Structures are given as structure tokens and as C-alpha cells.
Description:
Helix content: 25-40%
Oligomer: single chain
Signal peptide: 1-20
Order of helices and strands: HEEEEHEEEHEHHEHEEHEHH
Largest sheet: 8 strands, mixed
GO molecular function: serine-type peptidase activity
Keywords: Signal
Number of helices: 9
Protein name: Prolyl oligopeptidase family serine peptidase
CATH superfamily of the largest domain: Alpha/Beta hydrolase fold, catalytic domain
Organism: Luteolibacter yonseiensis
Number of domains: 2
Amino acid sequence: xxxxxxxxxxxxxxxxxxxxxxxxxxxxxxxxxxxxxxxxxxxxxxxxxxxxxxxxxxxxxxxxxxxxxxxxxxxxxxxxxxxxxxxxxxxxxxxxxxxxxxxxxxxxxxxxxxxxxxxxxxxxxxxxxxxxxxxxxxxxxxxxxxxxxxxxxxxxxxxxxxxxxxxxxxxxxxxxxxxxxxxxxxxxxxxxxxxxxxxxxxxxxxxxxxxxxxxxxxxxxxxxxxxxxxxxxxxxxxxxxxxxxxxxxxxxxxxxxxxxxxxxxxxxxxxxxxxxxxxxxxxxxxxxxxxxxxxxxxxxxxxxxxxxxxxxxx
Length: 314
């Protein structure tokens, strides 16, 4: 079923001619021109130049296109709803307007970021916050840092089980170009953003998590090591700390790496796992296959979500 879906999507994004409609982009960068017809919140119906229509899963589109769809008056899009009472108190404040059920883009003190939360979150309740750090890229456009693996948290099944708020900051490229985008300067900006979100939104201060892939995996270790009292748990994938264990030796962490990763050798993960072996809250999972893209498999696994959301700051 998944294979047929991917093949269908590939054909849609690879074989269409141009039209007078708008340009669309898939979350892996493929583009097409087609006319928007409708959306039910799960799939988007588009029209080719020849008048024929086809559907594309909403989460296969870029974050920018998903946001565009959510704003269309003709769209039947319904954001994944977090369980809440009929009398849910609306979330207000400067960040409250960004809780739309789609990734919303904004900037704070020079730091660009994307924020996700259901539009009917209850201000009277408390929700986990997940800070997601992207890997190295040449991207400078806010929204494109939201990788496919981050969207595993926004899928209806996962989100209904674990309603939360997600934030994905964009690393400044002069630093990220060297693979060092999540070091001291940007870490300070990210921490300030997280603390501002906690102050303004209904976030449980004991359930703030940090996850990241590749450069974001390194960043996950660095940020959590810098602010161990802020984060309840961390999941670095295909990227680990280059220093000593420090504060991480006392924190819940689940680290993932693939043996056949040809960009970030598994040796570094093994060495770091050895440093943390005395930490009873540390887990290390090594896959024989998956390469540097093992991150998709990691966050598609319900057990990963279950473990993360069970962690609480002590």
C-alpha cells in the first residue's frame, strides 16, 4: 500500500505539464503546477492542465503548501484535534495565534522557526513541548526545515494519543554550512524561544523534549547538556556529542544510529554510548541498515513516541 502511494505521488510530481494554476512542492522537493480543488484535511485534490483530477496526501506536501491549503475557504481541512472538553478555554497571547493545526511560520529576535499545535488546545490544560532540530542543509527559507520525520508527531493517530506543541527553529546558514549550526550563539536564541513559549503557552514545564537528526543530533546533545534542568528527555539520531558526557550522564536519552551511515560514522555513536553506559536512563539502538536516513524509521515507530512522552523532569 505504501509503495503504491509513493509510486503514485512520484508520478504526480514527475510527469505533469505546466498550467496557469500554482506551483506545488512535495516535502522532498519535487514540484508541479496544478489547480487546487479541495482538501478534507487528509488529502488534497488537484486538477491537471487537461482537466483531470488526482489526490495527494496533505502530509506529502511542503510545509508552505500545507499552510496555504489550511487558509483556503474552499478547503474542508480539519486540523488534528487534541482531546479537549467542549468548554475548552482558547489559547491566547502572542504565540496563541500560531496554533492553527498546521505548521505556522514566525520569527523572534532574529531566529526563524515553525510552530505546530492543534487550534483547539485547551489553555486550562498543560501539553508537552517538543523541540526539533533539523540537519545540515543549504536551506535559508523558513518552513523547509520541517523534515518528514517531524511530521510523524502531527499525524492524526500520533497526535490524538499525544497532543503536544512542536517547535522547529531554522539554523542560520553561515554556521550550518560548516555543520556547526546548533552551537553556542544559536543555542542561546533557541533556549530563549523555548522559555518564551513555556511562559506564553499551556506547556507542561516537566515535559519539554528535544530531538534532532544529523547536525540536529549533535545539537540535541549540546542544547540538553547546556540546559539539563529545562529538558526532560532527548532523542539524537545519526549525530552525537563530540565532547564528554557531562550532564547527559544523568538524563533520559535514547540515541539511534545505523551501521551503514556513510555521512556520520557509527564509531562516534558507539564511543559516546560507552561513555553513557553507567546512565540507567540511557538507551542506544543501533540498526544494521538505514544509513543516514534512518531517522524516518525511528520516528515512525510508535515505541519511540511512547518512550518520549513517558519521560518527566524530576
